[in-house]
Amino acid sequence: MRRLLYVHVLLCCLSMAHPFCPSQCTCVFHGRSDGTGTRSVLCNDPDMSDIPVNVPVDTVKLRVEKTVVRRIPTEAFYYLVELRYLWITYNSVTSVDTASFYNLKVLHELRLDGNMISMFPWESLKETPRLRTLDLHNNRITNVPSEAIPYLLNITYLDLSSNKLTTLPSDLMDIWPPFNGGQISTNVAQKIVLGLQDNPWFCDCKISKMIEISKMTNTPVVLMDLFLTCSGPENLAGVFFQRAELDNCVKPSVMTSATKITSPLGSNVILRCDATGHPTPALYWTKTDGTPVNNTVQESPGDGIRWSIMSLNGILYKDAGNYSCKAKNVAGSAEATISLSIAGTVSTTIPPLKPSFETGPTSQGTTITTPTDIPSTPYVTSTVLPRIPTTLTAVPKKPKTTPSNGLQRGSLKPSKILQGGNGRKLAADEKSKKNDVSKSVKDLKIVEETSDSAVLLWTADGVPNESPLTVVYSPYDEDDSKRTVETNAGSGKVLLEGLSSGMRYSVCLIAKVSAAGKDPCIDFYTLDIVEDSGQNLFMIISGIACALVLPLIALLLYKILALYCKGHSTALDEEELEKESYVKFETISMKQRTLTSHPTELWARRPTHESERMLLCSRSSIDSQMTYKSDTSRSEYLC
Predict the structure, then answer these.
(1) Which residues contact 23 (CB under 8 A, 6 or more apart)?
(2) Distance between CA atoms of 180 and 135, rounded to whole angstroms?
(3) DSSP string spanning 248-265?
(4) What is the distance between the alpha carbons of residues 37 and 60, in angstroms, rounded to a whole number?
(5) Which pLDDT score is estimated for 508?
(6) Dihedral pair phi/psi, residue 322, rounded to 5°
(7) What pLDDT sits at residue 513?
(8) What is the pLDDT averaged over residues 410-417?
(9) Fewest beta carbons within 10 Å, which of 30, 67, 200, 475?
(10) Largest alpha-carbon pair distance within the chain?
(11) Residues with Cβ within 8 Å of residue 70, at least 6 apart in sequence
(12) CA 328, CA 335: separation in Å to the nearest integer?
């Protein structure tokens, strides 16, 4: 009896140690041969209205299906630290709290399909870093905000089908290939599955990337249903995505003012880029390390066009690098890069150095050693830096036993320092070296520049006329495309051909007799063909204008002079007419008939007054012809 009692107590203890299962759920332990296993819980009681809170802590899979649960409360599963699969499907869930999935660090799959969720708390997914499957099929979701994108970066299975979505943020597709810039892989395990069917999609530029994916044949993004259909606008209603052609939707294109810029140290630099696209793209400037640039100005002069200018004032060596201009709109993005190089001269003042204090080699391959027998005067070393800044460092060295030090430069071998009689020989060598240095080609000058050629002039100072010269020229800062022309020092000029218009070139003269490192160089620019043609066009237009305008001006001057002369002559004619218009009039009247000795004189003359003259002018010709037979008739006025 005592033994039976012990066995009963042991069985009771084992039963109490067994995990407790909720009354409305079914708990199943899937054991393995090694004694380990997993536990799954299924809760499908139609009368269940709340999420169970006493689920075994070792549960790996929890299914709550076909219940009347309406809400998922805060921290509903916080103690299920081993939960990997959570299915709350075909219930009546309308509300999901922001912290509903708190502490589910190993959750791999979340299915909430078949509910009535209209607004899903996307930020609640930040508590599930290992989530790969998200199923929201057959809900009432109307919007996916841009804020949800960071929480979907690791999702490989996203089902948003059978909802009420009309659009998606354009940036959502940018997290997956090919829009994220990643390589397209053929590995099936790396495919992204999207369920987007059965939604009233409004086909405009915002979902142009989704339409583009539906037209691709080889893409890592796989659509569950390829036959997605547009519900709007009216001209695209019922049209499949594969056949939809969007209006006013153009990806951006970017063009920069230059791809490479070399500017002197301390100067001001302006970088410009122009972008086109529809809708009008926005422009962003970033540096090589991805840091944004703030000192920019941008403007949109018209629909679909935008330009931006970035200014750098007093550039330093740290400003060198690549600057990217990125244009972006809802249809896509484009990017262009400008490389900025710094060229300048750094002057370093070296304080008085003690004997046997030697500077280290610079990046130019130059070693400077301070002599011991010179006054303590500071040295100024100037190093020309066309591309990469050079640092001059002083390295202390142990004293040498030689009485004096020599100057080593370039690849010249150090000469031995001799004493006594050999001192004169050293001085002679130094003198001859100076004479060699003085013999050089100088006064380089570029003349007669055209769009594809230029003439280089020089003066040979002490160099024999038959000495060979090599002319080396290339586009500025492009050493890999050098050209050479062989000539002699006496010619004094050479023609540089095969140049490109509107470019900067560097040309150097290399003479065998010149000192090492003393080859003269000069930079120049070729003419721009566009400018030449513009000037020619201007000259032609000016000539035509002059040929048309000058005759008109001459004709106008002739008319003015003619009118002036005509007016003057008219005044003279009127004055002459006034003088000559009136003649001397006489009044002729009938004489009294008398018995005289001259019966034939029937008319008598008398002077005419001014008033009568005026009266004569006012009478008509008919009146002037009237005559009377009477002696008492009126007088007749005749001219």
Answers:
(1) none
(2) 23
(3) S-EEEEEEES-SEEEEET
(4) 10
(5) 87
(6) -100, 135
(7) 53
(8) 36
(9) 30
(10) 217
(11) 49, 91, 92, 93, 94, 95
(12) 9
Strand stretches in 25-130, DSSP E? 25-31, 37-43, 59-65, 71-72, 85-89, 95-96, 109-111
pLDDT tens digit sequence for 589-637:
555 555 444 555 555 555 555 555 554 444 444 444 444 444 444 444 4
279 upstream amide cis, omega within 30 of 0? yes
Residues 113-141: pLDDT tens digits? 999 999 999 999 999 999 999 999 999 99
Position 294 scores a pLDDT of 81
Question: 29 - beta bridge partners?
Answer: 39
Length of the chain in terms of residues written: 639
Closest CA to 279 of 170, 387, 192: 170
Q: Identify whether the C-beta of residue 177 lies closer than 8 Å to the C-beta of residue 153.
A: no
Q: CA 496 from chain center: how many Å?
A: 34
What's the rounded Cα separation, in Å, for the pair 409 and 369?
Answer: 10
pLDDT of residue 383: 38
Residue type, 493: K
**20 pLDDT above the threshold of 60:** yes
C-alpha to C-alpha distance for 135 and 146, rounded to whole angstroms: 19
Strands 37-43 and 25-31, by their bridges, are antiparallel
Assess contact for 142 and 302: CB atoms under 8 A. Answer: no
Mean pLDDT of 192-220: 92
Give how far Cα 417 sits from Cα of 32, 165, 400, 422, Å.
91, 90, 13, 8
Q: Which residue has the tokens 């929890």?
A: 62
Residue 564 has pLDDT above 50, yes or no: yes
- pLDDT tens readout for residues 352-393: 444 444 444 443 433 344 434 434 334 433 334 444 333 333
Rg (CA), the chain: 53
Per the DSSP assignment, residues forming a β-bridge with 588 are 605, 636
User: In the numeric block, which tokens belong to residue 412?
Assistant: 């010249």
Q: What are phi and psi of 402, to 5 degrees?
A: -75, 145
Report how far residue 229's alpha carbon sits from residue 197's, in angstroms, rounded to the nearest whole number.
8
Q: Quote the pLDDT of residue 163.
A: 97
Mind listing the pLDDT tens digit for each residue in 248-258? 899 999 999 88
Distances from the Cα of 69 to the Cα of 48, 59, 177, angstroms: 6, 20, 38
Query: Distance between CA atoms of 121 and 169, rounded to whole angstroms?
Result: 16
Bridge partners of 140, per DSSP, are none
DSSP H/E element including 444: strand 440-447
Q: Cα–Cα distances in Å, from 338 out to 246, 264, 591?
A: 33, 16, 124
Q: Which two tokens stand for residue 563?
A: 């009118």
